[in-house]
Every structure is written in C-alpha cells, then in structure tokens.
Amino acid sequence: MPRGRKKLTLDEKIRETQQSIYNLENRTQELYEELQGLLEEKKRQELEKLSDALEEAGVSVEEVLEHIRTQESETDTANIA
Asked: Are 69 and 61 in contact (CB under 8 A)?
C-alpha cells in the first residue's frame, strides 16, 4: 500500500523553493541565449536576402544608402517648409 508524501519541514520547503528558483533562472538564461541566437540567425537571413536582391537588381549598397539619404533630406526639407 503506497504511503502518503512525507510532510516537509520548513527548512526543506525553503530548500526546495530555492532549488526551483535556481532551476527556473537557469532555464530562463538558456531560453534567452536561444532567443538571441534565433534573432541573430533571422537578421543574418534577412541581410542575405537583401544582399541577393541588391545583386539581382544590379544595385550597390552605396547607391541604396545614397537614395535613402536623398529621401531623408527631401522629407526634412518638406517638413521645414
């Protein structure tokens, strides 16, 4: 016949709770590191996709940056007027 669970002392409950917190903190850190890796991989894939599109269009990074700067200047000028 199975016995019921042993009643824990206050000190045992404290130790178990501390261990649970420690385990959760470790798991949280592992998940954070996994998330960072996934975000880095997503960024790498997006940059690769962008690079491929630029290459396919025959446009350099410098040309795109110049176009963006020109757009920003025109927007800034329009907002001032």
From this structure: no
